[in-house]
Amino acid sequence: MSRGKYYNPEIERTSRKEIRQLQNEKLRWQIRRCLAKSEFYREKFRKAGLKAAHIKTVDDLIHVPVVTKQELREEQIKHPPFGRYTVAPAKDWRELHPSTGTTGIPVNTIWSESDVENITEVTARTMYSFGVRPGDVIQNGFSYGLWIAGMSTHYAAKRLDCFVIPIGASMTGRQIDYMLNPGSTVLLCTPSFALHIAENLRERGVSPQKLKLRVGCFGGEAGTETTATRGKIEAGLGIDAYDYYGLAEIGPTFASECTAKAGLHWAEDHYAIEIINPDTMARCAEGEMGVLVITHLTREATPMLRYWTNDYARYDSSRCSCGRTHARSLGGILGRADDMVIYRGAKFYPVQVEKVVRSYKELGDEFVIEMTRDEKTYTDVCTVVCECVGPREDKQALERRLRKALREELMVTPEIRIENFGTLERTTFKAKRIMDKRK
Length: 439
Hints:
Elements: H1 9-12, H2 16-37, H3 39-48, H4 69-78, E1 93-98, E2 108-112, H5 113-129, E3 137-140, H6 149-159, E4 163-165, H7 172-180, E5 186-189, H8 191-204, E6 215-218, H9 227-237, E7 240-247, E8 251-256, E9 264-266, E10 271-276, E11 290-296, E12 307-313, E13 328-329, E14 335-336, E15 341-343, E16 346-348, H10 350-357, E17 363-374, E18 379-388, H11 395-410, E19 415-420, E20 434-436
Parallel strand pairs: 3-4, 3-5, 5-6, 6-7, 17-20, 18-19
Antiparallel strand pairs: 1-2, 7-8, 8-9, 9-13, 10-11, 11-12, 12-14, 15-16, 17-18
C-alpha cells in the first residue's frame, strides 16, 4: 500500500459544501430506512409529529428527538434481546458488541458486514492521520472481545499492513517486554494504562530511549489532550501522544487527533455531529461547549439518530493546519455529564482535577475524588486524594500550593489528602475517578 500524507485525500480534503451535500444525501437514506424498518423510530417520529419528508438536511435534525442510553436499555428490556432499533435483518448480522456497562446495564450493538467494513476503514483513516504506516509494530493495549476498541484497531492495523501484537488491556510487565522485543513502534490503550506502563518502566530502570516506540494514541477516557497528562505520557514513554474517541453505540474508534494535535477530527462522511445546549436543547454556536449528539449516516444494523452521548465538547468547522476539512472538537472531550461534581454550588469535572494534579512533579499520576458526608452537619465533603512521589518533608507546603491551584481551576476549594506512592489502585481499563461514599 502506497499513500501520501492522507489516507483518503479525496474525502479528507473535500470542501465543506461537498461534505454537507454528502451528509444530506446519506441522512435522507438513513431516515427512510429507519422509519420503514424500525418501530422504535416510528414511535419517536409519531410522538414528535414528524415524517421522513420533514428531515431533508442535517440542519433539520434539530427537530428529531434525541436518543439516550437509558432509553436504549429500557427498549432492550421491553423488547429483548436487541430492541426494535435494530434495522438490518438477522441474515446480515456479523458481530455483537455491547457497551462496557460501567454506568449501568450494557447496551447491545450489532454490526453488519457493511458496518464492519466502514468501521475498519474509518479507524484506518484515524490511525493513518496520527502517523501509523505500513510495517509499524502495533502493540494493541485496548481490550479485546466484546469491548470494541481492540477489535476495530486490530482490523484497521491489518488494513494498514501493520504487524499487530494483540496483547489487550492486561499484563503490564509483558507490555514492557514486547516494547523491548520485538520492539513496538505504536501503542494503543487508555491514558491511565499508558501512565501505568510508564511508571513500571521507571521501576524497572528502563529508559524510554531504549524503546522503538514513537507514537501512541489513547482513548476510553478523557485526558490525553490535557497538557499535563499528554506531557507525562510523552516523557514517560518517549513518544508523541494523541487522543482517541469512540462509543460502543456509535463507533469504537472513529475520531482522533492528527499529527497537528489540534482536536479530534470527526469522520463527517459517516457521522453528523451536533453540539447541543442541554438547558435549551438548541444548537450551540461554533466554539461553545455543549453536549455532543451524533447521528449515524451509514450504519446499517443498529443506526442511532441523534444519540445523546452525555459528553461535553466543542465544534469547529475550520480547516485544520494538517489540511483536512472535516470538523474538529478542539480540546477533545471536555467532561461527561455523568461525572460532573457539584460541590458548594460549584460544578466541575474530573478532567479539571487531572489537569492540576498531573502538573505537579511531586505528585504521582493517580488521583481520586472522594465524596463523603459530614454526619454532624449533614453537608457534603469533597476530597481530592493523590500520591506523593519522593520525600514528604514539605508536605504542608505542597498541600497549600495544590489547594490554591485547585481553587483557581474549580472555583471551589476541596479537601486534600496526599497518600504514599502506590496507595491508589492502578488500572489497565477505564479509571474510576469519583468515589461516592455518601450514605
